[in-house]
Amino acid sequence: MQFVILTGMSGAGKSTAMKMMEDIGFYCVDNLPIPLLKSFWELVSQGTNNELEKVAVGIDLRNGQPITELLDYQKRAEETGSPMEILFLDAEDEVLIKRYKETRRNHPLSGEARVEEGIRLERELLKELRSRADYILDTSQLLTRELKEELNRIFVDRRDYHNIYVTILSFGYKFGIPADSDLVFDVRFLPNPYYVEGLRDKTGLDKEIRDFVMQVEEAGQFMDQLERMLNFLIPHYISEGKSQLVVSIGCTGGKHRSVTIAEELYQRLLKDRKFGLKVEHRDIVRK
What is the pLDDT of residues 204-249, one digit of tens each? Predict the structure, then answer.
C-alpha cells in the first residue's frame, strides 16, 4: 500500500496537489487531525479493499497539533514494513506573499501581524519535517500542468526522484540577465542567424536556425562541455539541499542562438533524468 502524507507551506498548493492525487487514483483525506493519523493508518494498512491501496492524507498547521508528531508516526510505520511517504510542498517567500495578497487571505499563523511573519514562523515550525520529507516540490515557478507531471512521475511512474527542479531559460542580453539565474552561459560566440537573409524572422525552435547554429564545430563542443558540467554540478546541488536551479543561456536578442542551445541542452538532460526539468524562452517573441 502507498500511504502518502501531503504537507508543506501554507499557500504552496497543497489543495491543488490533493485534487491531482485523487485524479491519479489515491483515496484522499484532507486536514486529518494528527491524533487520528495512527488509527487511520492502521485501518487502511490492514484492509484488503483495492480502492484503499493508495492513500494520501493532507495535514498542515490548521489542525492545531504539533506537525512534527508526524515524524514519530513515520518511524513507527517504517518499523512495521508499511512506510509513510512524506511529500512536502514549498515555495519562495516572495511567491507565497504574492499568492496571499491575490487571494486576500490571512496566513494561519500571522494573526494580526503581517503575512511575512506568519511565513517565517511556519518555516521554523516545519524545518525538521521538511528535512525528513521523501519528496520536496518547490511550486514557485511550476505551472499547474507541470505540478501534475511531477506527481505522476513520482507516484505513477515511480521513478527515482531527487528533490531539485531545473529550469533551462533562454534570454537576450539586451533585455537583461534573468534575476533568478543560478548559472549563466553566454553563447554570443556562435554565428548569429540574425544577419543571414531569410533567417532573421525565424526562431531557435525552427529547424533552419537549429541547423545553422549547430553546424559549427564549436557548438557541439560547447554542448558536450556544458552537459558534462551540469551532470557534475546537479548531484552536488542536490546534496546541499537546493530545490531550484535556473540555468540561463543568453545571446543578443534571446531569439535564435540561446533558444537553440537551451532546447538542445533540455533534450540532453531529459535522457534518464531523475529530477524535475523544463525549458523556457523568456525573450523569444520580443523585438
Answer: 999 999 999 999 999 999 999 999 999 999 989 888 878 789 999 9
To the question of pTM greater than 0.90 for the whole model, the response is no
Dist CA 80 CA 247 (whole Å): 42
Give Cβ neighbours of residue 254 (< 8 Å, ≥ 6 apart): 170, 171, 172, 173, 174, 175, 281, 282, 283, 284, 286
The domains found in the chain, sorted by start residue, are 2-155 (3.40.50.300), 166-281 (no CATH)
Q: Distances from the Cα of 130 to the Cαs of 9, 44, 72, 111, 199, in angstroms?
A: 10, 25, 14, 23, 49
Which residue type sits at 125?
L
